[in-house]
Structure formats: C-alpha cells, structure tokens
Specification:
The protein has about 250 residues and is an alpha/beta fold. The chain folds into 2 domains: about 200 residues, NAD(P)-binding Rossmann-like Domain (Rossmann fold); about 35 residues, no CATH class. The protein contains 8 helices and 7 strands; from the N terminus they run βαββαβαβαβααααβ. The termini are far apart. The protein binds 1,4-dihydronicotinamide adenine dinucleotide.
Length: about 250
Amino acid sequence: MRKTVLITGAAGGIGSATMEVFKKEGWQVIGVDRKSSDQEMSDHFIEADVSREKQVSQLFQEVGSKIERLHALVNCVGVQTCKPVVEMEAEEWDETMAANLRSVFLMVKNAHDLLSPGGAIVNVGSVHSEATSSEIAAYAASKGGVVAFTRALSIEFAGDGIRVNAVLPGAVDTEMLRDGLQRDHAEGGSIQDKVRSLGNRHVIGRIGRPEEIGEVIVFLADDDRSSFVTGHALTADGGATARLSTE
Ligand code: NAI
C-alpha cells in the first residue's frame, strides 16, 4: 500500500528536499506552506498558515476529503528571529512561538485521528534547543519547546499507536541559514565565505545539505524502519554539538 505523508514548510529548503526523499521512496506527498510553491514534488499542495487555528482546521477538512489515513506528519515550518532580547518586541516573540511551536500543537491535534493507529509524527527542532548563542533566544526557546512537546506527545499518543520523534538539525544550507548569517557568528566577508567558515567548525568540515535532514526524517517517519523509536530527539549536525566549545 502506498503511504501518505503531510509535510509543512514544504516551500522551504528542508521541507522541499524532504518531499523529494519521500517521493523517491514511493510515498504520496501532501505539501503545506503559507508561501505558494510551483514545485511538482507534492501530489497535492495546500497553501495555509499553520499557526492559525481556522486555517489548520480548513486544511484538514481538505485533506480528509482526499485521503482516509495519514501514515506520517512532518512539522517542518519555522521562522528564525535574530535579535537581542532587550530589543525584541513582544509581537516578534509571539510570532516566533506561533510559527515554531503553536503550529506543531495545532497540526498534531488536527492530524491525530487520521494518523491513528500506526502513524508517526516527526517534528523539526534544532540544535539550538541543546546549545545556543546570542541574538537567537526566541528561536532557541521555541525549539526547546518542540523537544519537550515531542516527549509529552510520544507518551500521550502511544496508546493510539502513534510514534512521535524530533530531528534536531545543525547548520543546513537553506534560505533561513543564509539570512541568519546576519548575526555575524561566522567569519568572512561574503555569504559564501561565511558559509565556508561555518562549515569548517563542524567535525565533518562542512554544513549540511537539506536532503541529509530529509533522509533522517523519512527514517523516523517510516514505521518499517523505526518502529521501536519514539520520544526521541535525533541530532543531525555534522558533529557540531559533539565538540566542546572550551577546547
Ligand atoms: P526555510 O526558511 O527555507 O523554510 C521554512 C518554510 O516554513 C518556509 O517555506 C516558510 O514559508 C514556511 N513557514 C514559516 N512559517 C509558516 C507558517 N506559519 N505557516 C506555513 N508555513 C510557514 O527554512 P529551513 O531551513 O528549510 O527550515 C525548516 C525547518 O528546519 C525549520 O523548522 C527550521 O527551524 C529548522 N532548522 C533549520 C536549520 C538550518 O540551518 N536551515 C537548522 C536547524 C533547524
């Protein structure tokens, strides 16, 4: 039987690469993003802001009219607000939390019945939930919430046969990463130089490619491969968090 996955953030770097990996594996793919996408990668593409309750419930009405069950849900939307805490407006804090954490709550709540039993949820967190930096506090806090929520969901949904895991990517070459280089945490004049110097700080000597995160997501989403894994946060960061920053 052909499996079906719904991926949010489908117009973004990691989301679109993940769709490709699922397609290659023969899955039916439903992509969702608030930005339109003309990619051919999804079988269905739905435009919605997944931090808005009404839009999420409309989205699931549409999904429910197309399919009877969902084998996996991948929550991949995210926004990164790069600002010192004292300069951050409350609205910016709220927007970050809404896009990165509220969206996960709304999506899992609405997807629950289509996923049960035997489905899987993969939430895309970040290594910023484990170790972080300056001028990225709201993002780090929201991703910490994603890990705690993943753990709680795995317990609450276990009785319905739904596994829930998170993937914690490190630096991955997407628009979000390149925009975030404005924080000046990487040396170099041009963006390309900054990307290279950031890569050199990784144990494996480079930053990640979006499809490398896609492979991890598919592993966690596929019950044939990861059926004994739930409540777990899997780090995929080229060894960035393995190295002691003091040595
Ligand atoms: P991206 O900026 O390329 O893609 C994010 C997508 O999410 C965009 O298409 C955007 O339109 C969509 N989106 C944002 N808020 C939305 C909302 N409320 N409703 C619907 N769509 C919304 O970013 P990227 O790099 O592909 O990030 C994907 C995920 O991976 C995010 O959760 C991000 O936090 C996470 N991540 C990315 C890392 C990186 O280095 N690129 C590192 C660690 C985590």
